[in-house]
Amino acid sequence: MQKTILDERQLDALLAEIFPQVATDFRVERLTKDGIVLRLCVGEKHLRPGGTVSGPSIFALADCAMYLALMSRIGAEALTVTTNCSIDFMRKPEAGRDLLCELRLLKLGRVLAVGDGLVFSEAEAAPVARASLTYSIPPKRSA
Amino acid sequence: MQKTILDERQLDALLAEIFPQVATDFRVERLTKDGIVLRLCVGEKHLRPGGTVSGPSIFALADCAMYLALMSRIGAEALTVTTNCSIDFMRKPEAGRDLLCELRLLKLGRVLAVGDGLVFSEAEAAPVARASLTYSIPPKRSA
Amino acid sequence: MQKTILDERQLDALLAEIFPQVATDFRVERLTKDGIVLRLCVGEKHLRPGGTVSGPSIFALADCAMYLALMSRIGAEALTVTTNCSIDFMRKPEAGRDLLCELRLLKLGRVLAVGDGLVFSEAEAAPVARASLTYSIPPKRSA
Amino acid sequence: MQKTILDERQLDALLAEIFPQVATDFRVERLTKDGIVLRLCVGEKHLRPGGTVSGPSIFALADCAMYLALMSRIGAEALTVTTNCSIDFMRKPEAGRDLLCELRLLKLGRVLAVGDGLVFSEAEAAPVARASLTYSIPPKRSA
């Protein structure tokens, strides 16, 4: 896998710049050898009755993890877009816990990148969800 | 496909009761012979820079359409949960337009239901996204 | 959707030329306004115990339908490849019946094409499976 | 994850009994702590022009790996069926090499099991494909 060219704090800053509405929801825990660990700081707006985290919030976490993992390797390409996500919801998240997505990049091609991730309630061993994502990478602008 | 047992306004009311945080985001346009048309009333919170609707908002629309289509046929089973969604993002939504999801139920089994939907910017012919979803239906409580 | 530039018999011939091992398994029923109907001529090799058609055979049908629908619109681009398929198996196929896949192209972009299809046992109304597929289209060779 | 109750050779035997048409295509390499490694013994029938392994053959490998991983933990339940598979094809397999699928079970519930796998050309580090699969488990027959 390619070397990282943005670190954790640069990725947090990038998110704040590009997606200010959601930047405080997420925090980069750490870059890994082939991906990233991203935290969803669970708040009222992410919850469903019973204290469980909503499906769209879990989707957003996996999608954002893929985006940031990609940015960490190719640099800030804001036009990079999700083309596909397949997500399996497997267990109910624990009430009152943040979620962590451990995402790995499986392919970083010229036009497509593919990754997959597991989502966990913090400190739990059994995953809440798994997701695989494809991103389309825009062609390089020639100078 | 089974007959509907809840109508459009009953579904809006069900949504308001079960998911009060998001109920005003969605509005049932109409039930169809095999599914539903659901509107996402696009507001500031659904947007990304450039005025486009966010991926998680489109996911939420498809997921909610499947949920309500299912409820319309089997009645209010709040414990019914999404187990899988595969979604393809195909085009950028038009800025400043609501989105409509046309969802059809393809299978309504004893334990699993499957549906798929196309998402359109209002008054556009080319779909913004497609999604297929599986829901798990809890066993009937015996009296 | 773009006009077709290859007709049914040209597509059958293309299949025979490019994929001789499987060409006799499939037969183009007809091109439709936004896609194709493809037949799987079910034989011994496609069956599982009980006479049902195997999952990989159903996958192959959907994949081939997408390929031919694409070829019918962009011409013979043998290098076009499947990048993603999400498939839901919903009902057991009828024993001793051919399968038909009704595939529609949803997007035909410069680098990616997306389609989805329903698979039916011949003369049945309830679908056996649904599939959505993404193909990557190679860049045009400059002369 | 549950303990295994069938070993490698019992799984090979089970495959030969239930799916005789394809049993010689596959060989269980080893059971792992949370899944299985399954080999596709690549032969002429799996190939496409250029010597690459066909998409349906890769799908069959992932599907069979999930099936056998499940059987290894719950015992021979022939009625267990695939309900969903999402598969990403990422790289061209190497010509003339077997493929290996490393599959892990992520959930083994009462009615649904979920797993995902990476597929590699033997002795290559970069995966050819990834797949996630859901199986439906039939209710236990009461005696």
Strand pairing plus helix content of chain A: what structural class? alpha+beta
Q: What percentage of amino acids of chain A are in beta strands? A: 25-35%
Oligomer: homotetramer
State the low-pLDDT regions of chain A, or none. Answer: none
Q: What integer is the average pLDDT of chain A?
A: 93
In which range does the helix fraction of chain A lie? Answer: 10-25%
Radius of gyration of chain A: 15 Å
Q: How many E-type strands of chain A?
A: 6
How does the SSE layout of this entry go?
4 copies of one chain form a homotetramer.
Chain A: H1 8-18, E1 26-31, E2 35-40, H2 55-74, E3 81-89, E4 99-108, E5 112-121, E6 129-136
Antiparallel strand pairs in A: 1-2, 2-4, 3-6, 4-5, 5-6
Characterise the protein shown here.
The structure is a homotetramer of 143-residue chains. With 143 residues, the first copy, chain A, is an alpha+beta fold. Helices cover 22% and strands 34% of the residues of chain A. Chain A contains two helices and six strands. Chain A has helices at residues 8-18, 55-74; strands spanning 26-31, 35-40, 81-89, 99-108, 112-121, 129-136. Chain A has a six-stranded antiparallel sheet with strand order 1-2-4-5-6-3. In chain A, strand 1 (26-31) and strand 2 (35-40) form a beta hairpin. The radius of gyration of chain A is 15 Å and the shape is globular. Chain A starts with 7 loop residues before the first helix and ends in a 7-residue tail after the last strand. The mean pLDDT of chain A is 93. Chains in contact: A-B, A-C, A-D, B-C, B-D, C-D. At the B-D interface, strand 3 of B face strand 3 of D. Strand 3 (81-89) of chain C pairs antiparallel with strand 3 of chain D.
